[in-house]
Amino acid sequence: MRRNWWRWGLGVLVVLAIFFPSTAWMHQRITQYKTNYKTPLNPTIMVPGSSASQNRFDSLITQLRQETKVAHSVLKVKVAENGQLSYTGSIRRGDNQPFIVIAFENNHDGYANINKQARWLNVAFKDLVKTYHFNHFSAMGHSNGGLILSLFLEKYFAQTKHVAIDRLMTIATPYNMESNSTTEQTVMLKELIAGRKQLPKQLTVYSVAGTENYSSDGTVPANSVNQGKYVFQNQVAHYTQITVTGDNTTHSDLPQNKQIVLLIRQYLLHENLPAKDRAQNQADTKRRSVTDETGLP
Amino acid sequence: MTGKRQPLRGLWRFNQRIEQWRAMRAIKEAFRVAYPFILVMTLIDVIGQSLLTNNGFFFQIYHVGSWLPGLDLWRQLFQVISLVINGIVAVMVAFTTGHYLARTYRGDALAVGVMSALAFLTLNVNYEALNTPTRGNGDAIPQFMENNLGPQGIFLAVVVGLVVGWFGCHLMGWLGKWALKHPQWGQLSWTSRVAWPLLIVLAITTGLGYGLSWLNDGGLNGLVYQGLNAMVTNPGHQGVMILAVTAINNGLWWLGLIGPVSLAGNSSVTSLQNLAYAVQHGSGWHAPNPVTLHTLGDAYANFGGAGMTLALLLAIWLGSKQASYRRVANQTFLPNLVNLNEPTLLGLPLLFNPILLIPFIVAPAVNIIVAWCAITWKLVPPIVYPVPRTTPGPLIAYLGTGGDWRALLLSLICLALSVAIYLPFVRLGNLAGGEDHAA
């Protein structure tokens, strides 16, 4: 009889020694699955600069569709001043790489306005996540659109849990506003630098500048674009600066610039470019990686 | 015996009659001899597969990788032993079957046993390797179809053992008589009495194997498996189809055709879709594929391996008075806990055992029906998270649903049901103790 007690006790002990560790293991695995899981839907969110509407990127998208032979569908969102959203277009069923253009009714320039636009962007973003259930995305901002995106990432992005940003490309984004100075920091740059700890650690950033001459693309000073390094460098996983020169490099032409379209395909959409496109791209662009400063002219 | 027990009584008599057959006795004897070898191999496999490999159950839950020194060395040692024995189980069975059958014919048992082992090997030579010794990438092609020499070759080994055992014995007998009638040819030595039948047997099996190599790449075994695979690979979402496939599969296991359907199909498309859904929505409720072979069969009808053998062991502990059954149950409990049930199948033996065939097929079928009802009536969510193949049966559903206690309850109900189904058949075996053996 006493031996039986021993046996039962041992059996119960073995069951417990298997049950509890396995339960703990299971919870650990499930969190792992959840963090590693990426939705097939992987939109690219595009934010135009000041004075531009939600149709700003139409010619860029047309070019991208032609060149990539993928019929990326386009959803356009316009945010009114009171935060109301109006949608045009749609994400086609089965299209996992759609473009979402987010524009603002009040699209004026200026520090205060850009901050407002970042808040409006957050309203639109939350609504998109709720509707389409994506948990990762990439973003592209032209001119002040890049500032809006950066501010959004620093101040509001953490509000949306379980969503990650993979890559951000800013095109001719004046991180130091109109200032050509390399020493003076405007309020905007100061704010971005102050909040840079909030940037997602896994993010990869490409900052593309266009230059007509040695100092500017006609609107935004090259120095202002370069100041982005004080925001991103050593904060995000990778930060790469690229300068494009040649034809079509005035500020407003940049999104349609052939080289920049190739850069978008290669870096933002992670396409495997055909060899001839890649070669052309490398010949025409001067790439400067911040991690490789000795290559600077 | 009450009237209710009458059909079981009939089954018992049927079993008694079958056991008189020479072939059945040979098969049983072959398994009896092979059992200790397979037991040792499986116990080593239990440690190797569940404790040392990356996707082993105990490796994962006890985080063995982080504290065991010299992990790679341990792995290699266990792999070597398991490879050696696991790799040639079927050859052993071919030998023991032929050996025992020859003994009943009072033939030269050892010679015939070796003959049938060689015949089995010739049927599994990789003829492709003879023409082109290396693949396009320079790898040498193995000269034998190694998979067929392991547990999945047992059926063919039994057949070859029986045929060669019978044929070889008679051939040697005829040769002896013929030599006596024709003394002018001289005295027939032992060597030539073995050599000539061996030549004939090998000529026949080589011809057979070569002919089959024109038909497909996997030899005779491959042919059978290919046919079965085509039939049962994709049972789809219908409960009835899943039921039929599992029943057929278990019937084949009973014949020694082990594993034509890999029930551990964790990585199939439907499972991945379910996983994706669960990860997004937090649980498996309303997953896109609630009823699949994986969510029913793997989760609720495969405790201990095909045929719910874990329930069979519990039934033996509860109801069997046969010493040999109880001994095998004790020895094979650990392997059954991690779903390696080959030693149980050979040790009892369950293979070719007409009494245990019925619960072996019925118990999983009943479990699948119960699980199907529970899932379609939304009483439990389907399993969505992958679990290691060596997870103890009753925990698979609990862990696979992400810790749903209803799934655990259903698992325990399924286990109890299976024990109840096995119990009368196990008790039937007690009659053997009462009548013949007087244990």
UniProtKB/TrEMBL annotation, chain A:
The record lists the membrane-crossing segments as none
Q: Which InterPro entries match?
A: AB_hydrolase_fold, DUF915_hydro-like
The secretion signal range is none
Q: Which Pfam families match?
A: DUF915 (PF06028)
GO MF, one example? hydrolase activity
Query: Which residue intervals make up region (Disordered)?
Result: 275-297
Keyword annotations: Hydrolase
Give the protein's recorded name.
Answer: Alpha/beta hydrolase
What species is given as this protein's source?
Levilactobacillus suantsaiihabitans
Its lineage opens with:
Bacteria, Bacillati, Bacillota, Bacilli, Lactobacillales
Automatic annotation (TrEMBL), chain B:
Its membrane topology, per UniProt?
Answer: Multi-pass membrane protein
GO term, biological process aspect, one:
N,N'-diacetylchitobiose import
Span-the-membrane segments of this chain are 33-52, 77-102, 109-127, 154-175, 196-215, 299-318, 355-377, 405-425
Which InterPro entries would you find in this protein's record? PTS_EIIC, PTS_EIIC_3, PTS_IIC_cello, PTS_Sugar-EIIC/EIIB
List, in alphabetical order, the Gene Ontology terms for molecular function in this entry.
protein-N(PI)-phosphohistidine-sugar phosphotransferase activity
> A Gene Ontology CC term for this entry?
plasma membrane
Which UniProt keyword terms apply here? Cell membrane, Membrane, Sugar transport, Transmembrane, Transmembrane helix, Transport
The answer to keyword Transmembrane helix applying to this record is yes
Is Transmembrane helix set as a keyword in this record? Answer: yes
Q: Which residues form the signal peptide?
A: none
Query: What main location does UniProt list?
Result: membrane
User: Which residues belong to any copy of the PTS EIIC type-3 domain?
Assistant: 7-425
> Which Pfam families does its entry note?
PTS_EIIC (PF02378)
Q: Where in the cell is it found?
A: Cell membrane
Task: Please describe what this protein does.
Answer: The phosphoenolpyruvate-dependent sugar phosphotransferase system (PTS), a major carbohydrate active -transport system, catalyzes the phosphorylation of incoming sugar substrates concomitant with their translocation across the cell membrane.
The protein here is known as Permease IIC component
